[in-house]
Amino acid sequence: MLSEYPDILTTEDVCSLLKVSKYTIYKLIRTKQLKAKKVAQHYRIQKAELINYINAI
Q1: Alpha-carbon distance 39 to 35, whole Å?
Q2: Phi and psi angles of residue 39, each rounded to the nearest 5 degrees, phi first
Q3: Is 0.85 topped by the overall pTM?
Q4: Are 8 and 46 in contact (CB under 8 A)?
Q5: Are 9 and 44 in contact (CB under 8 A)?
Q6: Which of 9, 22, 36, 44 has the fewest CB atoms nearer than 10 Å to its CB?
Q7: What's the rounded Cα separation, in Å, for the pair 28 and 35?
Q8: Cα 54 vs. chain centroid, distance in angstroms?
């Protein structure tokens, strides 16, 4: 499922993978359900963190 994606994902990548809006992704990041790092003005999510989140739900 995630093999064609890079190790570091953008919020747009995560939106398309989870089929949710960008507002949902930002809410998950804000509530610390999904770990992300802010680079400049954009969030980056490690693929491993996304897998952890998917396994937790």
Answers
A1: 13
A2: -115, 115
A3: yes
A4: yes
A5: yes
A6: 22
A7: 8
A8: 10
**Could you write out the three-class secondary structure of 1-57?**
CCCCCCCEEEHHHHHHHHCCCHHHHHHHHHCCCCCCEEECCEEEEEHHHHHHHHHHC
Greatest CA separation found in the chain? 29
35 to 45, 46: CA distances (angstroms): 7, 8
Question: Could you identify the residue written with the tokens 């693929």?
Answer: 47
- Compute how many other C-beta atoms are within 10 angstroms of the C-beta atom of residue 29: 18
- How do residues 13-54 score in pLDDT, each as one tens digit? 999 999 999 999 999 999 999 999 999 999 999 999 999 999
Residue 2 has pLDDT above 90, yes or no: no
Tokens standing for residue 4: 């064609």
